[in-house]
Amino acid sequence: MVDLLIPASGAGKALMAAILLGAGCGLLGCFVVLRRVALMGDAVSHAVLPGVVAGLIYSPGRNPAIIFLFAAAAGLVGAGIVRTLVATTRLKSDAALGIVLATFFAFGIMWQTRNQQDTVGVMNFLFGNVGSIDASDLRMMMLTTVMLVVTVFFLKRPFLVMSFDEGFSRGLGYPVKALNGVFYFLLTFSVVVALQAVGVVLVSAMLITPAAAAYLLTDRFGRMLVLSVAFGVISGIVGALISASVNGMPTGPVITLSATFVFAVVYLIAPRHGVLSKVFRISKRRRMVMRENTLKAIYQILESEGFVHEEVSIIMLAQKRRQTEEMIRTRCDSLLKHGFIELSEDKVSLHLTNTGWKRAMELVRNHRLWELYLTNEADYAEDHVHEDAEKIEHILGPNMVRQLEQDLDFPELDPHGKPIPKPTHLLGQPL
Amino acid sequence: MMENLLLPWDALGIGAFWLILMAFLVALPCSQMGSFLILRRMALTGDAISHSVFPGVVIAFYITGDLASPWLIVGAGLAGLASTVLIELIHKWTRVKQDAATGISFTALFALGVVLMEMLLGKNVDLDLECVLHGRLGLLLEGDSVPLLGLMVPTPVMIMAGVAGLTMVLMVLFYRVMMLSSFDSDLAASYGYRPAVIHYGMMFTVSFIVVAAFQAVGAILVIALLILPGSAAYLCTHRLKVMLGLAAVHALLSAVGGLYIHVWFNTNMAASVVVTGGVLLVMAWLLGPVDGVMWKWLKEDVGHPD
Fold this sequence. Notes:
The complex is a heterodimer.
Chain A: H1 10-34, H2 38-47, H3 49-58, H4 64-88, H5 93-114, H6 122-127, H7 135-164, H8 166-171, H9 176-217, H10 221-245, H11 251-269, H12 275-304, E1 311-313, H13 314-321, H14 325-337, E2 341-343, E3 349-352, H15 354-376, H16 386-392, H17 398-407
Helix pairs in contact in A: 1-7, 1-9, 1-10, 2-4, 2-5, 2-9, 3-4, 3-5, 4-5, 4-9, 7-9, 9-10, 9-11, 10-11, 12-13, 12-14, 12-15, 13-14, 15-16, 15-17
Chain B: H1 2-12, H2 14-39, H3 43-64, H4 70-93, H5 98-121, H6 129-134, E1 145-148, E2 151-154, H7 155-183, H8 185-190, H9 195-217, H10 219-234, H11 240-265, H12 269-287, H13 293-303
Antiparallel strand pairs in B: 1-2
Helix pairs in contact in B: 1-2, 1-11, 2-3, 2-7, 2-9, 2-10, 2-11, 3-4, 3-5, 3-9, 3-10, 4-5, 4-9, 7-9, 9-10, 10-11, 10-12, 11-12
C-alpha cells in the first residue's frame, strides 16, 4: 500500500525525500528552538557516524534498516553522554556538546579509515546525496515522519510546557524523564533520516532555520508548527528542483540555502519581531521623544517667565534646547503636524494649542512626579533622578500617574521645589 | 611490549618525530584558545567558525589558484568573522536565541561554501571534501622539506610552528586582557578594554588557527582540538594558568597517543589524535581532582556511612 506512494523516477524520489525531510525536521525543530537545544541536533548528527560505520561494516547486505538502527543507537548514546556530562561536571552544555560531537565523529572517521573497502558510501551520509535514496530509504522516512506527526499530535502540550519550564511541568505531574527520552529519541530518528539527504552538517540547518523563521512570525505555538513545516517543505522542494535542474549542484546545501533565504526574508520583514519593523518602531519612538522634548522646552520657557506670555520665539527655543534654528524649525514642523502648536504669521514665534498645552503639562508633571517618587520612595539622591525621569516621562500611562499621585499624596512641588502642573488647567487660566 | 612501543620509530624513523611534532603544533594553539572559548561558554562558536571559514577559503582559492597562498588564511579569517557578525545580528536584533542563531549562521555559510566550490571550482580540485573531513596529517612525510640546522624539516611543520609560535606570543601579550574579559567583561570594560575588540580579535585568531590546522586535521576535527584539551583541564583545576598548562600537556599526550594508534591500528592519524584526546578527557572526568566523578562518589560514600 505504502509503495503506491513512492514515485518511480529518481527525481520523484528525491523530491519526496526532500518534502518528508522538510516536514519532519520543521515539526521537531520548533521544540528544538524553543528548548534552546538547537545545537543538540548538530551533536547528534555527528555522533551517529560510528553507528553508520558499524552498520556499513556489519549489516548483512547493507540493510538500510539495520544501518539506521546502528546510527540511531550511536546518536542516542551521544545525547545521553551530553546530558550526563552536564549533570556530573561543571562543564556547560556547549562544551559537553562539542566534546561528544568531536570525539564520536573522530572515532567514526578512525574506524572508517581502517575499513576503507567496507565503508564505501559513508560520504553519502556525511555530505548527503538525495540521488542515492531508494525505495526502502523512502519507506523509512515515511515511517519516521508519521511517527513524528503522531507523537507531536499527542504530546504537544507536555512538550511545550517542558520547553519553557521543566520544573513547572514536573509540578504538573508530567513524567519529565520519560518525555525527555521520547524527545531525544525522536530527535535522533529525524536526524538519522535526514542524514542521507542533506548530510551531517546540514541536518542542523533543517532543524533550526525553518523553525526560527516561524518563531519570528507568530506568538502562537500551533501556528509556529504549521509555518515551520511549511518553510521546511518549501525549502525541500526548491532545493530538490534547483539541484535537479542545475548540473552538479549538491542537494543538501541548496536546501539549506533555500531555508536560509526564507529566514533572511522573515528576519527583515516579520511584522512584530522583524528587524525592519523594529528599526521603524525605534525611529518612531525617537522622533516622538524629540518632539516631546521640544514641547517640554516650550512649557519651561513659559514657566520661567511666570506664564505671562503665550508666545515663544523660535530663537529662544533654539537657545534653550542648544540647537540650531534650523533644527528647531524641523521639530516645529513635526509639532505643527500633530496639532500641538501654531506658528505666528511671520513664523518667528509660536504658541501652544490646547492639545499641545495639555501634553506639555502632562510631560512636565510625569517628569516631576517620577523625580519625587524616586527621591521619596526609592531613596534616590536628588541630583540622580533627572536622567531616569527624562526617559520615563514619555511612557507613563494615566493609570500609573494616578497611582503615583495617590502614593505621593497629591504633591504640589517636585524635589527641586518646582510646581507640579495639573493638566486639567486650561490654557490661560492661573495655575 | 617494548616492541610495540618502538614500532612507530622502526616503521617511520624520524618521520614519527615529525608526525608527533606536527600534531602537537596543531593541537597546542587550539588548546590555548579553546580554553578561553570554554570559559566564555563559546565552545560551539569554535564549531561554527570551523565550518564557516569554508566559503572564505573557496573564494580565496578561486582568486589565487594556490592552495598554499596566505590569502586563504585571510579569506578564512574574514569568513570566520562574518559568521560571528551574523550570529550577533540574529540574536541581538530578534528573539532567536544564541544557540539557534549559531546554527543558522554556520550551516548557511557552510552550505554557501559547498555550493561555491561546485560552481567555481568544479570537482577536479585539490580542495575536496575528503580533505575537509580527514585532514592530511599522514601525507606530511611525502611533501617538501627545508633544511634547518642540519635537519630536513617538512615545510608544513615549519608553517605550523610559525602559527603556533605567533599564537603563543599573542597569548602571552594579551593574557591579562583575555582573562579579565572572560571572567568579568564589565570589569575589563571598566579598565578601558573594549569587549567588542577583544571578542572579534579572539574570533579572528581562532579562524586563523582553524584554517592553519584545516589541511592537517580537517575542519571538523579542529573543533575537537579546540574543545577537548580545555575541557579536560577544566575538570582538573580551578585556576586558569594551571588549566592552560594542563591543556598544553593534553595536546602533547594526544599527539603522542595519536601516533601510536595510527601506527598500531593503521587508522587516520588526525582522527587518532582526537580519539586519544577523548580518552584523556574521559580519564579526567573519572579521576580529575576537581570534577572527577570517582572522588565525588567516594566522598558521598563517606558522607552516608549506612
